[in-house]
Design a protein that fits this description.
The structure is a homodimer. Chain A is an alpha+beta fold. Chain A folds into four domains: 12-103, 2-Layer Sandwich (Uridine Diphospho-n-acetylenolpyruvylglucosamine Reductase, domain 2), CATH 3.30.43.10; 108-224, 2-Layer Sandwich (Uridine Diphospho-n-acetylenolpyruvylglucosamine Reductase, domain 3), CATH 3.30.465; 228-335, Alpha-Beta Plaits (2-Layer Sandwich), CATH 3.30.70.2190; 340-427, 2-Layer Sandwich (Alpha-Beta Plaits). Helix content of chain A is 38%, strand content 20%. The first copy, chain A, has helices spanning 12-26, 34-40, 61-74, 126-133, 150-156, 163-166, 169-172, 201-205, 239-251, 264-274, 292-308, 320-331, 333-340, 358-370, 398-417, 433-440, 443-454, and strands spanning 30-31, 54-57, 78-81, 98-101, 108-112, 117-120, 138-139, 173-180, 185-187, 213-221, 223-224, 228-235, 256-262, 283-290, 312-317, 345-348, 378-381, 386-393. Chain A has a seven-stranded antiparallel sheet, sandwiched between helices. In chain A, strands 5-6-10-8-9 form a five-stranded antiparallel sheet, with helices on both faces. In chain A, strands 1-2-4-3 form a four-stranded mixed sheet, sandwiched between helices. Chain A starts with 11 loop residues before the first helix and ends in a 14-residue tail after the last helix. At the A-B interface, strand 9, helix 8, strand 11, helix 9 and helix 11 of A face strand 9, helix 8, strand 11, helix 9 and helix 11 of B.
Chain lengths: 468, 468
């Protein structure tokens, strides 16, 4: 496991003074209990917990601003926390300091149905929002695996299975309220659908992982629930044939909403876990959104394309129950992987490459994995060129940890050489700080200039994204 | 006409020294001819020319880097120039300095058909790119009125009629090569379709109007030319009915590619200019992209919605000649407006509001205009909530200039009060510096912090976007 960069902890006296002052401000909304701190120092990844010195449960933008001002005065680090479902140690208190838990800021402030947008607190989760929207005929499409908070999804530039059609958080955040490192509050944009009014501060804070400020309100785009949905599933002789089906589908302008891939290892794991007898071969799932006529037409067009690429067992349906059955196998992938080695943890890789390089990247990766002793099923958001290996490891076995590091390092290098990125949707945290330098080179110095300008004392989630 | 902020011109001696050094570097690719400087100090707006001290015709990223390094050493301002088709004085050399003309960097470096992307020099124009792509079955959808350079379109975050479906430059730039204020060169991103790898430098430079660096290469998204296109045109009793048709169309999930509006004044001008007898009433044009069956279905669905809102004279067609005829009237709008007062100039306003506020914004604006002596036809990209008044004025008549300023000021204040923006697609230049402060408040100080971090000597297109 990479060692946390925790050598520059905050001065204990400064931290104690800040906590004492915070306690006067927020009362019992501050906790220094070991269990609470331990929980707030870890996410869902293989990274060990690095607990903060205290946790404040914030209730409003003004509250966050007051907390940040106190911490800034004492030069104490501040780490924002949503649901703790990040995957690269984003919430680890590497330098100590105060964790600001935003989960209580879970109000859906406003839904503007005519404008297809809404304003939400950072603690609202994606499932909570969609539950709330159910009767409006609208939905929010971004769906990382976890039921993450929308603040956290914004901060990591999350995506998921719908990105090929609906984009990522980058495309779906219209405006933000942000508390800056000195406690000042800004709104990054008005609610207009587009604007050329100055620097794109919204996009600067999307993906900034709490290192430039704390997001306390998000204006999001919404979409009408499609009149009809069709789902298709199809097996292919090789990953290349599956990927070529995807390329041709997208080039044909078929407005596919989801295209997911699983390799034969993943299909085998699913069969074993879910007691199915699906073909053990690279498999695509596709989903189409539109009118009844249009989704039938789209499925038919893709069936023809898949046929040209050796696709077999093509099934498609608009029936809700049947659709659920087809997707179930894909949804079971995560559970199936954990069941491969009960009691073990998973290390999810996250490279994303141009789609023309995807087949090559996956095939070279699978050849590399064939020499490893660790199981590593593969799933991917193949329409975007993004795929995940699930490395199933015992985190207490240094040999297994070293093997994961080796495989991941080689995978990232391969993706970068193919003009891809080390992280399609999980973010940098502190797990990928060095990969960021390998990926962006000199541009990281510009990131550092921005970080230094907005947070000169390096107090906002220090040690993440860039080393100062 | 607002006075240019030209009170802090560069030291003449420093400027002369820089120009002498540049001349050694680039030879006859540097010009100090009055006519060349005059042309490079003006765009297509009402803003008067503010000529630079010299113009360098750059040929490569390395060339731009060398030029910037010389200027930086002498503390001489640098202004990037594409086609000079901006609308808010973006290219005016307010503090003097050197204009870097990028029009010779017009190479289409690479088209990746499988990935639906391409890399182009900043001097490539949108029409040049689409001409080049014609045989590939691909196209680039962003279409501001002018045949602007893609570097300029990136720098102003341009859009046009297709944004409702394809987004603006914000959504369609994948990566940039940028020469920074000190001459260093960065690439902002790899070519992957999505990434969570650090701060979104791509989006930071999109819309930065040459104030943070000079864009020397752009990686753009491309799209497959749709199998079929249908175009529809329809008149409405009121602007509200037209806008409500648009809202319902978008909420129904109909993936409309274009929705344009013109008011009755604009239709009257078009009739007179083009010798047509179109109904003098608020009019919508719509375009649908997809399969033959899908575009027919979409047009039919919108016809039904328009019918519910009093739409009359609904015509739609997939025939290329007929489509051209329907669009011709919309394309004639700009010429029709200029013909209203031969010899006059136009001042194009550019507010954009949430679509639920659009009818109110247009109606209040038309009531305001009814008291004015200036003609001001209205067209708009109504799917985005963006509309333009064409104020037709004699720029030498102070009374007319003052009236334009008054109307525009009131229009912007109205749009901001409706949660809109002062500029949907034209950018800030120096014409909207004060409106930016009205729109963003404290957030402008963050823009200033970023500008100061990346360009501490305020040499990159100074006086634009933010005052330092």
């Amino acid at each position: 496991m990479p060692a946390p960069i925790s050598n520059r902890r905050v001065e204990p006296a400064a931290c104690e003074a800040a906590i004492a002052e915070l306690k006067l401000l927020v009362g019992d909304r501050l906790s220094t209990a070991a269990a609470v701190r331990e929980q707030h120092g870890r996410d869902e990844s293989y990274h060990a917990s690095v607990p903060p010195d205290a946790v404040v449960f914030a209730t409003s933008t003004e509250d966050v601003s007051a907390v940040v001002k106190i911490c800034a005065r004492h030069k104490v680090p501040i780490i924002a926390y949503g649901t703790g479902t990040s995957l690269e140690g984003h919430v680890a208190a590497l330098h100590g300091g105060v964790c600001v838990d935003l989960s209580r800021m879970n109000q859906i402030v406003e839904v503007n149905a005519d404008d297809l947008d809404c304003r939400v607190g950072p603690g609202v989760t994606r499932k909570q929002l969609n539950e709330y929207l159910r009767d409006t005929g609208l939905f929010f499409p971004i769906d990382p695996g976890a039921d993450a908070s929308l603040g956290g999804m914004t901060a990591t530039r999350a995506s998921g299975t719908n990105a090929v059609r609906y984009g990522t958080m980058r495309e779906n955040v219209l405006a933000l309220i942000v508390v800056l490192a000195d406690g000042r509050v800004i709104r990054t944009s008005k609610r207009a659908r587009k604007s050329s009014a100055g620097y794109d501060l919204t996009r600067l804070f999307v993906g900034s992982e709490g290192t430039l400020g704390i997001i306390t309100e998000i204006t999001l785009r919404l979409y009408g629930i499609p009149a009809a949905i069709s789902t298709a599933m199809c097996a292919f002789p090789t990953v290349s044939e599956a990927v070529n089906t995807v390329i041709q589908t997208i080039q044909s302008g078929i407005p596919v909403a989801r295209i997911e891939i699983a390799d034969e290892l993943q299909m085998d794991a699913i069969n074993k876990y879910s007691k199915l007898s699906l073909k053990v071969a690279p498999t695509l799932w596709l989903e189409f959104h539109g009118s009844a006529a249009s989704v039938a037409e789209q499925a038919g067009m893709v069936q023809a394309i898949a046929g040209e690429h050796g696709g077999t067992n093509f099934e498609w349906t608009t029936n809700a129950e049947e659709r659920k059955r087809l997707w179930q196998a894909r949804h079971d992938a995560a559970y199936a992987n954990k069941a491969l080695r009960p009691g073990c943890q998973v290390w999810a890789t996250d490279v994303c490459v141009p789609i023309s390089r995807l087949a090559q990247c996956i095939e070279e990766t699978k050849a590399d994995l064939a020499t490893s002793f660790l199981p590593a099923p593969l799933v991917g958001h193949v329409g975007d060129g993004n795929f995940h290996l699930t490395l199933v490891l015992d985190p207490n076995d240094p040999k297994e940890v070293a093997e994961c590091e080796r495989l991941n390092r080689r995978l990232v290098a391969r993706a970068l050489a193919l003009d891809g990125t080390c992280t399609g949707e999980h973010g940098v945290g502190y797990g990928k700080v060095d990969f960021l330098v390998a990926e962006h080179g000199e541009a990281v110095s510009v990131m550092r200039m921005i970080k230094n300008a907005l947070d000169p004392d390096n107090l906002m989630n220090p040690g993440k994204i860039v080393r100062m």
